[in-house]
Amino acid sequence: MANKIIKAIHERRSRREFTDKAIAGDDLQEIVRAGIWAPSGLNNQPWRFVIITDAKIREELSATTHYSHIVLGAQALIAVFLDSEVVYDPVKDQQSAGACIQNMLLAAEALSLGGVWLGQILKKKEQVCQILDMSDRYELAAVVALGHPAHYDQKSNRKDLNHFILKTL
Length: 169
Ligand SMILES: Cc1cc2nc3c(=O)[nH]c(=O)nc-3n(C[C@H](O)[C@H](O)[C@H](O)COP(=O)(O)O)c2cc1C
Description:
Largest sheet: 4 strands, antiparallel
Oligomer: single chain
Order of helices and strands: HHEHHEHEHEH
CATH topology: NADH Oxidase
Strand order of the largest sheet: 1-2-4-3
Number of domains: 1
Helix content: 25-40%
Shape: globular
Radius of gyration: 16 Å
Strand content: 15-25%
Structural class: alpha+beta
CATH class: Alpha Beta
CATH architecture: 3-Layer(aba) Sandwich
Bound molecules: flavin mononucleotide
């Protein structure tokens, strides 16, 4: 695979096991910077972030999801919110958040870090917002768990390309 961006897209995997090594603050900034360069409808940039490295808060958040082991093992969490004061279309704003999160996951890999998109935690989003002391203005879109990968053994698969292409006209 010649193109490095396409290679990065193919090689990104959800990383769920991490070492104890802390993530440099500059790397977290770089990851968020990659996120904000995602496209958004009308360029409204609806994403907002809470960056969490505090061990006590991570522990509190771990109780809000089935994936508590991932939250506990991650060295940093980035909670991604939509700002209700700038959103303009529920579907498009969520799509923008998705693009932002994918950019952050790719940036993490590029920095030799790894991450996973946590969506199941949305079931307890009110509790998450309470722990993070967020006002009603912000709606949780996802939490990204980050760390130095403990290994690179993750496997994933995709159905054959032809499964997805409905028509070529
Ligand atoms: C909207 C969304 C929600 C997800 N929620 C979770 C989650 O709560 N826990 C988890 O371990 N992985 C979660 N994932 C990661 C998927 O399980 C993962 O992307 C999928 O299995 C494909 O694996 P890959 O990312 O390694 O290619 C989520 C991914 C997306 C896009």
